[in-house]
Design goal:
By secondary structure, the protein is α+β, with helices and mostly antiparallel strands. It has eleven helices and 23 strands.
């Protein structure tokens, strides 16, 4: 046989042999590599090498690796850490092992070989997700919200005498969004990423230092007098004045005495003193508060602000002339007036000795006003400080 023919014959035989061998051996490759329930080589789950292991061994190795993991919730000032067991956290081992076990076992023959080859060359990584008890998770986050949430604080003025000496900026408020935080934990928590920032929503203060820079003088001020020997009544007057002090009324907004002070109850520090009930003077919690609301009412009148809601006592009161009083009783009787100016109004309430003074500060130049001085009104005698009224027993009021 000529040499060329021999070479051709050998080539044909070789090709046929390789083809036959490939047809027999190649189909056995996936079956050999994945014999039993073994995972493909070079498979990692959560960074743990489990390639080539039977499912049971891979599960045990992963369980030992996971151990007792923790979840950390990060807020602006601090971080809280709990074990996953406390919030019903469980690794989804079945899901990830099922996914890893499918490598090289799904699709046609070519697809299976390709996936095994890629895993052999580059490795195959799988993430380990976790499930949680959402009720326990939500309860935990609700508890944390009490530590995170804060109301916005309006800007303030520091006033000495009748002069503004400093404008103090406000503080942004914030609220922990429970639902969004739960969803973030469910989607983002991993062993290598155990710290989850909580979802915070910020709220701008209604009035900032920039808003207060327009304020330059007193647009309305009023003073009434009381008997300091009535200790409980004096206490209540001082307490409610502190609550009112620093209130800021934005332009075109209505101020509510009850909204600002809330209910006047013993657990808030208010004491028992005399109040008016059905044209009688009796003992009740919060006696004396109405003298402060009356003082505020008259300051608003002097400022020319529209009165939205006001109620009179059931009997005349001795610290103000008839018709100029304003009783309050939470939540039914309120004192409300509107800031109808184009600038914020800053409410200053102070108690000095036996007098309570409420001053309303605004933009006296923009409103075409002259800054006023302390004034009062009553039925006794004029002094250099204004009109002084009789020192009386405590008067508060409900009907």
């Amino acid at each position: 046989m000529p040499k060329a023919q021999r070479i051709g014959a050998i080539t044909v035989v070789t090709v046929v042999a390789v083809a036959l061998l490939g047809g027999i051996v190649l189909p056995l490759i996936p079956a050999f590599i994945l014999r039993g329930d073994r995972l493909s080589p070079h498979v990692r789950i959560a960074g743990v090498e489990v390639g080539g292991l039977p499912l049971a061994e891979a599960r045990t190795k992963l369980q030992n690796f996971v151990g007792n993991p923790t979840l950390s919730l990060q807020a602006p000032e601090r971080t809280w850490t709990v074990t996953l067991a406390e919030v019903g956290g469980q690794p989804l081992l079945d899901d990830v092992l099922r996914q890893a076990h499918a490598l090289g076992r799904e699709g046609n023959y070519v697809d299976r070989v390709k996936s095994l080859w890629r895993a052999w060359q580059d490795g195959q990584q799988y993430d380990l997700a976790f499930s949680f008890d959402e009720k326990k998770l939500r309860r935990l986050i609700w508890n944390l919200a009490a530590c995170v949430n804060r109301a916005p604080v309006n800007g303030r003025l520091r006033i000495e005498g009748n002069q503004i000496v400093e404008v103090i900026d406000g503080r942004w408020g914030r609220r922990l969004n429970v639902d969004a935080t739960v969803q973030r934990i469910l989607s983002d928590y991993r062993l290598h990423h155990p710290v989850i920032p909580v979802v915070i929503e910020e709220k701008r203060p209604a009035v900032t230092a920039e808003d207060l820079r327009d304020i330059n003088g007193i647009i309305g001020q009023f003073t009434t007098w009381f008997n300091r020997s009535k200790r409980n009544r004096t206490w209540n007057i001082r307490l409610v004045a502190r609550v009112l002090d620093g209130a800021v009324i934005p332009p075109q907004h209505v101020f509510s005495f009850n909204d600002r002070t809330g209910s006047r109850e013993a657990f808030k520090g208010y004491k028992v003193a005399q109040i008016y009930v059905n044209k009688k003077i009796v003992e009740g919690v919060g006696g004396g508060v109405c003298q402060v609301s009356t003082t505020l009412y008259n300051a608003a009148l002097q400022a020319g602000l529209p009165i939205v809601q006001r109620h009179r006592h059931s009997l005349p009161v001795p610290y103000i002339r008839s018709g100029r009083d304003a009783t309050v009783s939470y939540p039914h009787r309120d004192l409300q007036f509107k800031n109808n100016t184009d600038s914020p109004i800053y409410l200053q309430a102070r108690v000095e000795g036996s007098r309570v003074t409420v001053a309303l500060w605004g933009n006296v130049r923009r409103e075409g006003r002259l800054s006023t001085q302390p004034r009062g009104t009553g039925a006794v005698r004029l002094t250099s400080r204004g009109v002084r009224v009789k020192i009386s027993a405590c008067i508060g009021s409900i009907r």
